[in-house]
Amino acid sequence: VVCLVAYHVFFMLFVWSYWKTIFTLPMNPSKEFHLSYSDKESLEREPRGESQQEVLRRAAKDLPIYTRTMSGAIRYCDRCHLVKPDRCHHCSVCDKCILKMDHHCPWVNNCVGFSNYKFFLLFLAYSLLYCLFIAATDLQYFIKFWTNGLPDTQAKFHIMFLFFAAAMFSVSLSSLFGYHCWLVSKNKSTLEVFRAPIFRHRTDKNGFSLGFSKNLRQVFGDEKKYWLLPVFSSLGDGCSFPTCLVNQDPEQASTPGGLNSTSKNENHLFPAKPLRDSQSHLLTDTPSWSETAAKAEKGKVGMSNPALTMENET
């Protein structure tokens, strides 16, 4: 009876997570990141150069973005006509920009991003548990099959096929699930592993990592009772994210209140633009920055504001 109940629980959670992963529409950047009609016209009229740079700088001036392209330009999508939020990428399959895009998954025929990343993780977890449960309960009959302890019926083939299928899927799912657990612990996406985010003055592969606990809360939320259920509980709006190492823009004189370092011996530089209310509360606890003061000082040597040439990236 216990095995039967567990079987149905795993199966229902698996189907629920899979359904939410498939049919949850990926979130797109909000209207404030889209260029206005006048800015679009200015961008189209002006030749590539300082004029276009000024249009993009003006459009991104009040936006909570800290990342740049490899050449130091504002991340701009010429297909969606918007300034890309941090961790946002254009999906060539969906033909639109996806917030915190991880990858486009052909198995669910959907982009995995901010809106459904938690559902995707739970889908992998419950799929793995379901396969392990099937393999474990079928193991005794599989052993009897090899020791000729089963009656000579057509059920022998089904027992053998079921065990091998469950075992093979368990191996593949465990590697994939383990990889995404590592991504969550480091607060990275699959795209950011292959191309580290570039901030205003340098590349930092761990720029969005706030420590294991806070990284976990960004995906699963603050309410632990919702962690194992396929209901949306991720923190934030997908357009802005707290960072552990974003150097202050030289054009901005001061750092906003509430983001100053709590230690006199540390000289960390924090985001010069305000985070959204839904994200900034992650930075109100005891700071867990991993960079030392020496490294921060080293990073400031020779820095200058790079020329913001427009560069399109997907």
UniProtKB/TrEMBL annotation:
* Known EC number: 2.3.1.225
Chain segments carrying region Disordered: 252-314
Reactions it catalyzes: L-cysteinyl-[protein] + hexadecanoyl-CoA = S-hexadecanoyl-L-cysteinyl-[protein] + CoA
Give the bilayer topology.
Multi-pass membrane protein
Protein keywords:
Acyltransferase, Membrane, Transferase, Transmembrane, Transmembrane helix
Lineage: superkingdom: Eukaryota
Task: Give compartment(s).
Answer: Membrane
Q: Does the keyword Transmembrane apply?
A: yes
Which residue intervals are annotated with compositional bias (Polar residues) in the record? 252-264, 280-291
State the Pfam families in the record.
Answer: DHHC (PF01529)
Instruction: Tell me where the transmembrane regions lie.
Output: 6-25, 119-137, 157-179
GO MF annotation list: protein-cysteine S-palmitoyltransferase activity
A Gene Ontology cellular-component term: membrane
* Chain ranges of the Palmitoyltransferase DHHC domain: 74-193
Which family is it part of? Belongs to the DHHC palmitoyltransferase family.
Domain characteristics, as noted in the entry = The DHHC domain is required for palmitoyltransferase activity.
PANTHER family in UniProt: PALMITOYLTRANSFERASE ZDHHC16 (PTHR12246)
- Tell me what this protein is called: Palmitoyltransferase
Q: State the organism named in the record.
A: Sylvia borin (Garden warbler)
Q: Which gene encodes it?
A: Zdhhc2
